[in-house]
# Entry
Amino acid sequence: VGARLISHAGSLTNLAKYPASTVQILGAEKALFRALKTRGNTPKYGLIFHSTFIGRAAAKNKGRISRYLANKCTIASRIDCFSEVPTSVFGDKLREQVEERLAFYETGEPPRKNLEVMKEAMVEASQVVAEVRKKQEKKEKKKKKREKRRLEALAAAAEDMENAVLETEENETEPKKKKKKKKQEAEQELEAASEPEENGLEEEEEEEPLPKKKRKVGAETVQGDKKKKKKKAKEVED
# Structure
């Protein structure tokens, strides 16, 4: 019945804006306008007639219980529409009130006052809201933890990808370095092979003037011997 009323009104907010008299005859607009034209009796109920509470009531009490039920439906729709945390406490209390009103029509037992019922509902609703908020906070914490884990996993995956890219780049650059090293080694070998030839030539060039020095030394010794002979000859003459 609630779903039918909401669909006929268009939305829950529209239903919450309607007064109880409109909710009572919602769905019986044709009968209402016909009664207004003909100045006949207006309808007592519309879509709300499908409720079991009206079916359980006696024929003479159907209009009274439909008016009472429409009143409770408007209160419930406003609570559901404008409450921050949705709870079923008020709906259960309003249902109990309708049951008590039915019993009052049948047996004559006086029902509880609306003020007393709403005070009880407020106390119970505050406890339920506290529990719901705790559950919501737990869910939010779990969501935050999941998001942190997901971000950490993404960061780790990104680091792994970067490391893999760096490794591939290093592997690509290593053969080039090896080629360069091989080229350098080949150049060093060529230089080492050319150095002994140059050294041999230099040694030969250095060894060639040695006999000249020996010749010079030999000429000096010959001249010294001649001088000595001359001195001896002079001494003998003297």
About this structure: The chain is about 85% helix and 0% strand. The first helix runs from residue 2 to 9. The chain has a mean pLDDT of 81.
